Amino acid sequence: MNNLVFEISKPLIGNGRSKNAAEAKALIEGLNAALALDLKRIAVYCHCCPLYNFVTGRWSAKQRKVAVLINQVALLRRKFVYCNPVLVPRNDIEYAFRFAREAIISQVTMQPAESTHKRVAIIEACVICLEDTDVEHIFSVDECQHRYCFSCMKQHVEVKLLHGMMPKCPHEGCDSLLNVESCRKFLTPKLIEMMCLRIKEASIPVSEKIYCPYPKCSALMSKTDVLEYAKSAVAAGLQCVGARKCSKCHGLFCINCKVPWHNNMTCSSYKRMNPNNPAEDFKLKSLATRNLWRQCVKCNHMIELAEGCYHMTCRCGFEFCYNCGAEWKDKKATCSCPLWDEDNILYAENDSDVDEDDFDEDEDEDDYYDSESDGYFI
Question: Locate the RING-type domain: which residues (predicted)?
Answer without folding.
Answer: 122-341, 126-170
